[in-house]
Design a protein that fits this description.
heterodimer; A: 401 residues; alpha/beta; B: 391 residues; 4-stranded parallel beta sheet; 51% helix
Chain lengths: 401, 391
């Protein structure tokens, strides 16, 4: 299985960077206030104010990949959190309830919480629970859902006004100010990292594709948790160079790429390599996905607050299913995709509930067939090994015809 | 409490009561029919009305009504939602699956359109699915702010209501004047007031009858509902309370299937109060009726101050504390959570509310509802719970 996976040389750098990040975030809590953020929150403002950030969702993914999420989920379920709820939330709440089982000893204790609903409204309920548990202030940022491609002017104004509120709120609770120079610097670094990430993803249009979905899923971590820092930019420069080299030398992510696939939804963390190896066995390589592109939208730094309001409102899963289908059609065409694989993720309703219609629209418009796998991003109890394998096999046989 | 007139003989009193029951029955039957019979019959029943569907208590009914349309709330229907299966995975709540099924089955063909206010992630997707599958239908989405404590919530909400007003006026070719809005606000406030009056007289009605009245108010034209409800309130005055068993508070989202209410009635319990969106959250708080104020601002203010749905973040509303206050005020013996499976906001709140109730020693029971409730199992669990309360 692992022989099918061509490891990147920069994997070492990534490992070092992320370990450093987790260790440092533990130490930093003595020097800087710590905020817990949702993955789609405008971290640039906090970074520029010298507020350290930690990401419960990222931590949930880490627990999932380390095969401990289900144990932690059970802890939360014992406290009344339904098994039908988001497994990132259950995993993270479980890690608080039972620190002994929490990888890395859990996240550093928060002083502040910032939740943004551009990725889902579950985060808000989750953070409400955290605010009650830790008795710390919570800021809720509301980014109206985009049912139409062009957001209403009053919706952008609304988000911008809340961002101003957020700055004042952070200042009130930490005594730290947002210096314009530092803010611009952070925004520029964030934009650079995001742009590099976008370029790296675009390089996968090459045949064979230099990266497969597990590479994308693992390497997106810095753009989520470290955007706005120089280290993220340095890392992505190095990664980009390696990916470019693969393209130049026609080195593919998997030994023999026969079918180019698209992945939709969050990864299945406990089965990340295993699942993608099942596809690789048939020569299937995931050349593009919709999840890791969530952190690749450009930012208008000339009007920083309005720019942030626009960018954070327009993240992929805050868009209508029609807009998402449109994006997918574009990806299919540009990346030469032969098959679509949708992870119907029990944990993530805003991502998963429109998939059947998206599948139909994209297949009708491009002729590319699709497969829907029902599972969960962290809770391995929702992963039915046998049936999933059979479905993958059948699907790959259809592609072979 | 009503005191029997000493001059009236017991026989005479009994006769009066029977007479009242006889007068009440047709009203209650109208409510039960309106709320329980097939939604397909709506156009036959109200031939002079043009229906606009909506799906949650955050839909601005007053604006719909001021456009000359009749707002009709969509509810969970009795049929298994088979046609929704091609559009929604199994982990979608029964409400969304059922209403989509009804639409795909042609039951909702009489609707001129559908209004989706922004509340939960599932409804957010459902609005898009609706647009995709009924491209010729008027489908409106209305933003409703998430953070009710934010100073930015009100201006955004007013702007969204204004946008909806324009869209709807354009669609219905019916200008929506401030005066029409004010008249609609009066009408809807009257409905809320009457439902509150019925709420105060709950002990004289069965649970099934009370919730049939609330449900009828959401599907009948208010012009027809209000006089009947007013008559019912009058008839209930002086009516003796039903023999009382354990007093319950129901907590959840939509409770459209009367099976649980029948169980409560059968087992001799009574519903003292609720926090349901097919109950008190629907009629909580009137809209301010000041002549000079902008009616849209008045509407917005009600949404910001009414009893919130758990999809809304309200830093000034502690759900647990309010629940304990209700338990005390309504002299409730226990709380029954009637939660729709796969409704995340309610499931999250349950964990917190459970902890609050445990700490205060208030007995509670969780009933998780799916499309077709397993009545036998629900009965056993409810019976066991009531035994604890009776002990």
């Amino acid at each position: 299985m692992t022989k099918k996976y061509r490891k990147l040389a920069t994997a070492q750098d990534l490992n070092r960077l992320m370990t450093h990040y987790y260790v440092r975030s533990k130490l930093i809590s003595r020097l800087q206030p710590v905020a817990w953020l949702t993955s789609g929150a405008p971290v640039e403002i906090l970074t520029a104010m010298g507020i350290a950030s930690a990401y419960p969702e990222n931590y949930g993914a880490l627990c999932g990949a380390r095969q401990v999420a289900t144990t932690l989920c059970r802890e939360a379920e014992g406290r009344g959190y339904s098994r039908d709820l988001c497994s990132y939330a259950r995993t993270h709440i479980g890690s608080i309830l039972k620190k002994a089982d929490a990888p890395l000893g859990g996240l550093p204790r928060p002083d502040l919480l910032v939740a943004c609903n551009n990725i889902c409204s579950t985060t808000v309920k989750w953070y409400e629970a955290l605010a009650r548990y830790y008795k710390v202030p919570l800021f809720v940022l509301d980014t109206p859902f985009m049912h139409h491609p062009e957001p209403e002017a009053h919706a952008i104004q609304y988000v911008a006004a809340q961002l101003e509120e957020l700055i004042a709120w952070l200042q009130k609770h930490t005594g730290r100010k947002l210096e314009q120079k530092k803010f611009m610097e952070t925004l520029t670094l964030s934009r650079q990292a995001v742009q590099l990430w976008r370029e790296i993803r675009e390089l996968c249009q090459a045949r064979p594709s230099p990266l497969n979905a597990p590479d994308l899923f693992i390497n997106m971590a810095p753009v989520v948790v470290l955007r706005g820092t120089r280290e993220a930019v340095t890392f992505y420069q190095k990664l980009k160079a390696e990916v470019e080299e693969r393209v130049a030398k026609k080195v593919g992510a998997i030994p023999e790429e026969k079918y180019r696939l698209l992945w939709d939804n969050i990864a299945i963390w406990p089965r990340l390599f295993h699942l993608f190896a099942c596809f690789a066995d048939f020569g299937g390589c995931f050349v593009v996905d919709t999840y890791t592109q969530a952190w690749s939208a450009d930012l208008d730094v000339s009007e920083p607050i309005e720019g942030l309001a626009r960018t954070y409102t327009a993240v992929y899963i805050n868009q209508s299913l029609q807009m998402r289908a449109e994006t997918m059609v574009d990806l299919v065409e540009r990346f030469g995709v032969d098959g679509l694989v949708f992870h119907s993720n029990r944990s993530c309703k805003p991502y998963s509930l429109g998939q059947y219609d998206i599948h139909r629209i994209v297949t009708e418009r491009t002729g590319v067939p699709g497969l829907i796998i029902e599972a969960d991003m962290c809770d391995s109890r929702a992963y039915a090994e046998g049936p999933i394998k059979t479905r993958i096999q059948t699907f790959m046989e259809i592609l072979a015809r | 409490m009503h005191r029997p007139n000493e001059l009236e003989s017991p026989n005479r009193l009994r006769m009066k009561s029977v007479l009242k029951r006889n007068q009440m029955e047709p009203i209650l039957n109208t409510f039960i029919t309106a709320s329980q019979s097939s939604v397909r019959l709506w156009p036959e029943r109200y031939p002079d009305h043009q229906a606009m569907g909506y799906i949650c208590t955050y839909a601005p009914e007053e604006i719909i009504h001021a456009a000359g349309l009749t707002p009709v709330r969509l509810r969970i229907g009795p049929e298994p939602p088979t046609r929704a299966e091609a559009h929604l995975p199994g982990f979608t709540c029964a409400l969304c699956r059922s209403v989509l099924h009804q639409a795909l089955h042609g039951d909702l063909a009489f609707l001129s359109g559908l209004v989706f206010p922004h509340t939960c992630d599932t409804l957010q997707v459902l609005a898009d699915i609706w647009r995709e599958n009924f491209p010729d239908l008027f489908v409106a989405t209305v933003g409703q702010p998430l953070n009710l404590g934010s100073p930015d919530a009100r201006p955004y909400l007013v702007a969204e209501l204004q946008r909806f007003r324009q869209d709807l006026a354009g669609f219905s070719r019916h200008p929506i004047t401030d005066d029409a809005l004010r008249a609609s606000i009066r009408l809807h406030n009257e409905t809320r007031h009457l439902l509150s009056q019925l709420d105060e007289r709950r002990s004289r009605l069965s649970a099934r009858s009370f919730y049939a009245a609330v449900a009828a108010s959401m599907v009948m034209p208010k012009e027809q509902f209000n006089p009947l409800a007013a008559e019912l309130v009058k008839l209930l005055n002086g009516e003796a309370p039903r023999p009382e068993g354990p007093r319950l508070i129901l907590v959840g989202s939509v409770l459209d299937d009367p099976a649980i209410l029948d169980l409560i009635d059968d087992l001799g319990a009574c519903v003292a109060s609720d926090d349901l969106c097919t109950g008190s959250r629907y009629f909580d708080q009137p809209v301010a009726e000041t002549r000079d104020a902008d009616p849209l601002e008045a509407l917005a203010d009600r949404y910001l101050k009414r009893r919130p749905c758990p999809t809304k973040h309200n830093p000034h509303w502690q759900r647990g504390r309010h629940l304990l206050e209700w338990v005390e005020e309504k002299k409730a013996d226990g709380v029954v959570f009637v939660l729709q499976k796969f409704c995340d906001p309610h499931a999250f709140d349950y964990a917190t509310l459970k902890e609050t109730l445990d700490a205060a020693d208030v007995p509670h029971l969780l009933l998780e509802l799916e499309h077709t409730p397993a009545v036998g199992q629900l009965r056993t669990r409810l019976e066991a719970f009531l035994e604890i309360l009776n002990a």
